[in-house]
Amino acid sequence: MSLLEKMHTLLILLAIILGLLLGQIPVIEATAEHFIVPFLLLMLYGLFLGIPIKDLKKAFENFKFAGTSLAINFIWTPLLAWGLGALFLSNQPALWVGFIMLMVTPCTDWYLVFTGIAKGNVPLSTVMLPINLILQVLLLPVFLLIFAGVMKTVDMSFLIESILLVLALPFLLANLTRFILNQEKILEKKLIPFFETGQIILLSLAITAMFASQGKYLFENINVVYTLLVPILLFFLINFLIGRIVSRALNFSYEDSASLNLTTLARNSPLSLAIAVVAFPDQPLIALALVVGPLIELPLLALTSQVLLKIRASTISKEDEEIFQGD
Q1: What's this model's pTM, rounded to 2 decimal places?
Q2: Of the candidates 78, 112, 270, 303, which lies 20 to 30 Å from 204 by C-alpha distance?
Q3: Closest by Cα among 34, 256, 7, 33 to 124
């Protein structure tokens, strides 16, 4: 493991702190949000650059993984989110609704980078991205109706724009690059290694921009962080354990189990926040819960990726030991 890989968690924390501090400068706070998507697109371009299309074809055939991931994300997780909210947020219904909105929307961008960091099955996780995006947009109104007593719909143009921007654009550009440079040594020896090293930097820059755009608002409502800390921590712990147990029961490889963990842990706060602003213009606490979520979630994802790497190292060591004993 390189020094940069060992510093992933620290870099994420530093990016959050830097973003919060920069967010106190008015001109930076006003412009920071415009840099979030470009950094994410570059990050995903670099990630897709290292994934041959043939690997994606194989991933589409893994129905066992897809069914398991969807069941955890869209059946188990909403129930868990409601239960944790009832336990810790029942006296603050606005935060409860925001918490539920955050937890029922699986991530559709940076979870791929954390999957790559953890040496998980990135092609398999990539296949789940558009499925998760479509289902969460279709089902979020249902969850809002059930849990919050309201019914809001999402503009179809927003769904199409999200798919094209978040998935299709970097995917097409990456494969166009692979096609053009297919016979060139620069692709395998220069470009792919550059982005493998730079992914965590681009992720950190995106996180810095994200928190810079919301830093002032967070500092003015810091008590919300403490209120949401325990339920979010419990969500991560419970779902991480569920993912490990299910992976073992279904005999998933380490790569697939790491992908399942990160696909069912990372949440889509930008989508939830955009919907909350439209759906609940008179409930700022709902939007604030969705801003606070990543403040806790991102360090946890960085930590989870490192824990998974430790599990991977332990698994490899055991396999080597068994081979040695067999010889």
Answers
A1: 0.74
A2: 78
A3: 256
Residue 216 lies in a domain: yes
In a domain, 297, yes or no: yes
- The amino acid that residue 59 corresponds to is A
119 in a domain, yes or no? yes
| 30-52 pLDDT, tens digit each | 898 788 778 877 877 887 787 66
Of the ranges 105-114, 140-149, 210-219, 302-311, which is most confident? 302-311
3-class secondary structure, 242: helix
d(CA 92, CA 85) in angstroms, rounded, equals 9
Q: Would the CA dihedral through 182, 188, 193, 196 be positive or negative?
A: positive
Please state, in angstroms and as integers, the Cα–Cα distance from residue 250 to each residue in 64, 231, 243, following that order.
8, 28, 11
Give the pair of three-digit tokens for residue 127. 């296949």
CA distances from 238 to 72, 215, 235, 308 (A): 12, 29, 5, 15
How sure is the predictor about 109, in pLDDT bands with cuts at 50, 70 and 90? low
Tokens at 281, concatenated: 């213009």
| Residue 69, C-beta contacts closer than 8 angstroms, at least 6 positions apart | 128, 260, 263, 264
pLDDT of residue 155: 55
The burial of 229, by beta-carbon neighbours within 10 Å (0-12 exposed, 13-18 middle, 19 or more buried), is given as middle
Looking up residue 214, the CATH number of its domain turns out to be 1.20.1530.20
Total domains present in the chain: 1
**Residue 322 falls within a domain, yes or no?**
no
